[in-house]
């Protein structure tokens, strides 16, 4: 639609929307106290709105301070917190934690049957923290020395449990509260805050100090704890996104352009991940050799190939956004791919992922033009900001980092590190630039009638 032909009109004839977007609610007419016309200087009745001699308006336009104050108040933190239903949010979060606790009890029982020593060392709260991808610290001390290990096991498949728990709880307690776009957003924040706070409190009680049975004679002790702030941050993100996506309705996009574009950014990241996972699964069914070159073939000996693929899919989607992928000491990016020692077939897989991501984001850019063609805001920029944010969350959650040293019976000090994943800062910057350029091209290329 060509806005130039509506330059001198107030409304679109197709749907009646305002062309000029005049914000009349910010202003009001105030009757002048003096009934003398300022144009012809003749006297009028006090009740007159217009001069009976020359027709001049006897009112003045002033800014509506009441509405101005309401807008200011609506942006304050106090106003936001006041409009969150914390009672229902707390019930939803508590129910989710209880569901996870039941899952953890079952998991602990199964673990105890397989590995009795480990099953007795950990408690269900540790498992709940692990399912929310918490960062754990383990320190040891004894006659043979001391040391510590810091580990973040960002195995994405673990998120299935908290996602299902939050989904069930939201459908039971929060669905009726999300009546519009504003309430959905605010209640999502409420569930995120209460869920994160509960994990924060529980993480304080995960700190334990114990001595393994076979090491009592060496007078060794281990101290295990989860990082509380990390648990709050993880809990807020997981609960907020689950609640928001469950309560979001398509009609809300008309209320706030940011809500619709944010959902589109989340959907794009999720779609890319799923498509990459399906392609990797199809390739793996015919040939697993590429996993060896990725440095992940060894992991399939201890855990299922499907679990490895769910993790690898997130890394490959990041690589497809021009983000360097790190596997142990090996880092590969689009810039060193051709000069690497990888086989040609493996290089083609990487290149195919880049082409795939370009097509997906190009289509997103076209969709943004079709959907928001009459909006004056830079929708591509808004999309890229949200897209980069959620890609950063993927990088943060999917990283597997194990480092440090810990005393052992066989050797005085064991040193080693495992690093798998995408760098956080680089992921945010590169995914923003990549999506802004590619989506921008799609936006420019799309032609509508």
Automatic annotation (TrEMBL):
KW Metal-binding (keyword) present: no
Protein name: Zinc ribbon domain-containing protein
Domain of life: Bacteria
Keywords carried by this UniProt record: Membrane, Transmembrane, Transmembrane helix
Keyword Amino-acid biosynthesis attributed: no
Species of provenance: Romboutsia sedimentorum
Coiled coil location: none
Transmembrane annotation, as ranges: 91-111, 149-173, 185-208, 228-247, 268-286, 348-368, 380-402, 422-446
């Amino acid at each position: 639609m060509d806005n130039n032909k509506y330059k001198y009109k107030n409304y679109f004839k197709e749907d009646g929307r305002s062309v000029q977007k005049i914000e009349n609610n910010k202003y009001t007419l105030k009757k002048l106290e003096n009934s003398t016309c300022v144009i012809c200087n003749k006297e009028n009745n006090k009740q007159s709105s217009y001069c009976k001699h020359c027709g001049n308006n006897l009112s003045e336009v002033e800014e509506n301070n009441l509405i101005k104050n309401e807008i200011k108040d609506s942006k304050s933190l106090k106003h936001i917190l006041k409009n969150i239903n914390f009672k229902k949010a707390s019930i939803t979060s508590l129910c989710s934690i209880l569901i996870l606790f039941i899952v953890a009890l079952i998991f602990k029982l199964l673990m105890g049957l397989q590995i009795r020593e480990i099953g007795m060392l950990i408690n269900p709260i540790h498992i709940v923290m692990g399912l929310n991808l918490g960062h754990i610290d383990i320190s040891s001390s004894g006659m043979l020395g001391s040391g510590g290990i810091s580990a973040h096991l960002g195995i994405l498949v673990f998120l299935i449990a908290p996602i299902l728990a939050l989904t069930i709880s939201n459908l039971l307690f929060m669905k009726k509260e999300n009546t519009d776009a504003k309430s959905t957003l605010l209640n999502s924040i409420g569930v995120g805050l209460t869920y994160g706070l509960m994990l924060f409190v529980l993480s304080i009680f995960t700190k334990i100090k114990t001595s393994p049975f076979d090491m009592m004679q060496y007078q060794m002790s281990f101290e295990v704890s989860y990082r509380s702030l990390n648990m709050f941050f993880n809990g807020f993100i997981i609960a907020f996104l689950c609640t928001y996506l469950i309560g979001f309705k398509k009609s809300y996009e008309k209320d706030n352009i940011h809500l619709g574009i944010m959902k589109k950014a989340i959907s794009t990241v999720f779609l890319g991940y799923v498509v990459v996972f399906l392609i990797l699964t199809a390739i793996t069914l015919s040939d697993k050799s590429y996993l060896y070159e990725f440095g992940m073939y060894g992991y399939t000996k201890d855990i299922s190939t499907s679990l490895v693929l769910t993790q690898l899919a997130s890394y490959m989607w990041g690589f497809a956004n021009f983000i360097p992928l790190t596997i142990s000491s090996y880092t590969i990016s689009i810039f060193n791919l051709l000069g690497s020692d990888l086989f040609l077939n493996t290089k083609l897989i990487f290149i195919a992922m880049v082409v795939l991501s370009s097509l997906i984001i190009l289509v997103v850019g076209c969709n943004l033009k079709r959907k928001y063609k009459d909006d004056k805001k830079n929708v591509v920029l808004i999309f890229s900001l949200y897209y980069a944010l959620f890609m950063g969350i993927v990088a943060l959650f999917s990283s597997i980092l194990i480092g440090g040293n810990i005393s052992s019976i066989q050797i005085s000090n064991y040193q080693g590190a495992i690093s798998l994943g995408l760098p956080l800062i680089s992921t945010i910057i590169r995914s923003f630039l990549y999506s802004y350029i590619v989506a921008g091209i799609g936006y420019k290329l799309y032609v509508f009638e």
